[in-house]
Fold this sequence. Notes:
This protein has two domains: 43-161, Jelly Rolls, CATH 2.60.120.10; 162-281, Jelly Rolls (Sandwich). The longest helix is centred in the middle third of the chain and has 9 residues, at 140-148. By secondary structure, it is mainly beta. The chain has helices spanning 140-148, 271-276, and strands at 14-16, 27-29, 35-38, 50-60, 63-70, 75-78, 84-92, 95-99, 102-106, 110-113, 120-124, 129-137, 155-158, 163-166, 175-185, 188-196, 199-204, 209-215, 220-225, 228-233, 236-240, 246-250, 255-264, 278-279.
Amino acid sequence: MLPATPDDYLVPGKRRVDRRAPDANLEITVSNPIHSQDLQVDPTSSLTTSIATQVLQGEIEGLDTIFHAVGPGQTVQLQHSPDQGRVYLFTRGNGGASCGTETHQVAEVALWAPRHATSHSVTAADTSLHFLELVVDLSATDLAELEQSADKLPLFISYSDCRRYSERIKSAKTISRTLLPEHTFPRLCVGSVETTGDDSVAAHEHPMLEQLFLGLQSNACVVHADDAEFFFGQDVLLHIPLGSRHGVDVQAPDKLHYVWIDLFKNREGMQWIVQEHIPEA
């Protein structure tokens, strides 16, 4: 089962020094601990039903994150409301995502943004299906934007169909994908980063947005945020402290592979994505 509360690798106000260092028990005061929660389901348990657990509860104002694990052959009816928008990120397993008469097949990492405030469901096939539900509180401005861009939803995209982009803070060998493009869903963008060691995502900052990372299969890297550092593995959801200068390192033979989830303060902030992400031909 999932932990009931987030795992703070960093005790509030402290960080753990590299275990290889001589003073391995030394604690250094830092200002921004990195909060995380492990989303792994106990592999020894047989999932015959479905579970839904709110994770990193209260971490980001206006954003709830709910982890779902749907048992083989099970169907889950998902909630909807007029004042909240929902996006689903599928990370493991296979099945179907349905809204009305339309069903999308989930066979790899995928993102689904159904039409706003409509009934929809997810069904697992022969394996359990894992996904993260992103619930965004919508302002009057957000609702007006949804209405104006109604032709962009529903959106369903599989990993192998994602548009790729490059970025100045990443190496030439890094594969960057866009799952939820800017100005498709109010204030929310989603993408991914994939590379192998030795490599890094250079230190940078973006105070106009809140950011989550979700580790995909075989992810094994180190996240830095100001003076804090965190070993970041697969099936882990973490929050980058708002406004921190942060980056990611990976050493050979390990792999860096995670999804980033950006929630902007306003529509104008999305210009940062437009400026920094260079679409590949």
